[in-house]
Amino acid sequence: MPTLIYLIGFMGSGKSTLGRILANVLGFEFVDLDELFEQRFGRPIPEYFAREGEEAFRAAERSLVEESARLQRTIVAAGGGAFLEESNRSLMLTHGLTIYLRLSVSLLMERLRTSRNRPLLYDDAGRTLKDVALRNRIAKLLDERRPFYEQAHVIIDVDERAIGLTVDRIASEIQSAAKRSD
Ligand code: S3P
Question: How confident is the model at residue 63 (pLDDT cuts 50, 70, 90)?
């Protein structure tokens, strides 16, 4: 049984919500890298981005990914950008089972419409983009990121179905991966 699972994917894809439920179902620990970031660095991510810049955020995020690679019996929800960096990706692919939660732009748009804490979706005034501008930003980022996300071991297409069904599908993927590695 793989005992370290990384949930990866775009902002708003449900990594944290699904991760918490999955950890309960499997009797694993749950770690949200964004929450860990805020605890460690003592500041909300938007504030960190605004003051230190994205590059500093990525360096700090890298240190948390390195730390997470030592965990066992844990579901890790990775921030949406964590899997893009070569060193993070290779650590996650080597030490864990990586699962990409794939959603359409429309569904992401629905979920991110009311988001307030994601600096990559802000306009110049620091407010979350709206309507067409939000959709364009999501589509552009997703286009850039897709080739990386699709390197995950497992891809789960998430649609509007009940969350329980998605949890079941992920749990059964984890079990099949366990069988393959026996
Ligand atoms: C980011 C996603 C965020 C957070 C930061 C950057 C990204 O996490 O790490 O705002 O680059 O996609 P979520 O995916 O949990 O929103």
Answer: very high
Residue bearing the CA closest to ligand 1, atom 11: 81
pTM over 0.85: yes
Question: Ligand 1 centroid vs 56 CA: distance in angstroms?
Answer: 14
**Of 8-17, 28-37, 119-128, 155-164, which gets the smallest average pLDDT?**
155-164
Closest approach atom of ligand 1 to CA 11 = 14
Of 174, 172, 6, nearest to 90 by C-alpha is: 6
Residue with CA closest to ligand 1 atom 2: 80
The residue with tokens 């960096």 is 85
Q: Which two tokens stand for residue 122?
A: 């802000």
Structure tokens at 82: 């964590």
The CA distance from 116 to 131, in Å, is: 14
Q: Which residues are CB-neighbours of 41 under 8 A, at least 6 positions away?
A: 48, 60
Q: What is the pLDDT of residue 60?
A: 97
CB of 45 sitting under 6 A from ligand 1: yes
